[in-house]
Amino acid sequence: MSLSLRKKRAVARAKAAGVDCLLVTHLPDVRYLCGFTGSNAALVLAGGRAVLFTDGRYTAQAKAEAAGSRVVIARKPAVTAACEWMEAAGIQRCGFDAAQTTVAALEVMRKSVSTKVRRGLFQAVEPLVAGLREVKDAEEVATMRKAALLGCQLFDGMLSFMQLGLTEVAVAAELEHAARLAGAEAMSFETIVASGERSALPHGRATQAKLPKRGFVTLDFGVVVDGYCSDMTRTVHMGKAQPDEREVYDAVLEAQEAGVAKVAPGVTCAEVDEAARSVLRTAGMDKYFSHSTGHGVGLEIHEGPRLAAKQTQVLAPGMIVTIEPGVYMPGRFGVRIEDMVLVTATGGEVLTPSVKAWIEL
């Protein structure tokens, strides 16, 4: 999808929401709409006009990346310059993303315009751009496929690297080093390596703890390729497992595969969540599953839709979501398995096809 079409769709959504223009300050949204990747930006979409405000550090970059937008280099905060421009342009109702705008930011916006227009100019609207970003176009899917496959490649390499005596930090560092050498721009988030009892922490940061002689090791990581994130989790076992450890792993794998199998157009997010959760409920383990089944992924690691109970949003072709049930038993161990899944016209396609079967190292 071209940037011009994305902007047109955003403007149409703004019009439907009853506003004359859209003020975009959330940087992933700015990138999605105009291509600019700098760290300071405010984008105004008003009818057929797209005006990007940034500072002098990005003069050349903005003109190259946001060629389809007018670029204004401001000597003041970008959002202040954008608001002043809107008042001068006679904008009556400006929509801003209520979910991405702090009270402090809104106060800056209001102080940037005269008191005569301050009261009615700014209108909070639902996350219009975030909704557009949920459905990926063919180019986005291709990029995310590359990121996902790179993640699989990295996991496969870690299987031969992990051994007794290594710390969690050493494992994370090796994975991240390999990722950068393989072409990743960055990691999608802080790499999770949680071993032994620490595997019961859903977001256990890598520490100086050494990999156990016997026990689980959970790796949750992702890479960024051309701005788009990947996300995957695998849990492996060091040494000979106890029967209950294998029982939990098999239940989580069954739940994860049930969630993946449920992904299809027209299915609600709650139905996918229930497909995975019901397997753990039958196994008597659902009380140890403490989070939602998944979330969307894209320019940000956590996007819509959210796959959780009571979420009535319907999946649509082009969405890319995670399916990541887990069982976490405090003081003992935890298991999580996660894939990225593309919603296709007929079902779901796993983008992270590396091995999920039981692995003992």
From TrEMBL:
One of its GO terms (molecular function) is aminopeptidase activity. Keywords: Hydrolase, Metal-binding, Metalloprotease, Protease. One of its GO terms (biological process) is proteolysis. Signal peptide: none annotated. The keyword Hydrolase applies. Residues 6-135 form the Creatinase N-terminal domain. SUPFAM superfamilies: Creatinase/aminopeptidase, Creatinase/prolidase N-terminal domain. Residues 143-345 form the Peptidase M24 domain. The keyword Protease applies. This is Xaa-Pro peptidase family protein. The lineage of its organism: Bacteria, Pseudomonadati, Acidobacteriota, Terriglobia, Terriglobales.
